[in-house]
Design a protein that fits this description.
- With about 90 residues, the protein is of the alpha/beta class.
- It is built from three helices and five strands.
- A five-stranded mixed sheet has the order 3-2-1-4-5, with no helix packed on it.
- A hairpin with a 5-residue loop joins strand 4 and strand 5.
- Helix 1 packs across helix 3.
- It is globular and about 35 Å long.
């Protein structure tokens, strides 16, 4: 799962989303945060991939807070901002 961040505030819930998604996937999920150019990631406890020249956002039309899931069948799933957090929270109940 790839979580896209374009603002530091958006990264605050990413650890919670990652933990919930991994739990739902029974540990069979790898999570990375793709960060916009120049974004600070101090204290973010997840692996970070820097979108250095912005190609990820340009190609996929990514917006901060979106979650992209590369499915086993090769398709790419998308959760818009906010829905990724709500979906993962519901799945833990």
């Amino acid at each position: 799962m790839l979580l896209y961040a374009d603002h530091e505030v958006r990264t605050t819930s990413y650890d919670e989303v990652a933990q919930a998604a991994r739990s739902r996937a029974h540990g069979q999920l790898t999570v990375r945060v793709i960060v916009a150019p120049g974004l600070r990631t101090d204290g973010l406890p997840l692996p970070v991939v820097r979108d250095g020249r912005d190609p990820f956002r340009q190609v996929y039309g990514a917006h901060g807070g979106e979650a992209f899931l590369s499915r086993p069948d090769g398709y790419l799933g998308l959760r818009p901002p906010g829905r990724a957090v709500r979906s993962c929270r519901r799945s833990r109940r």
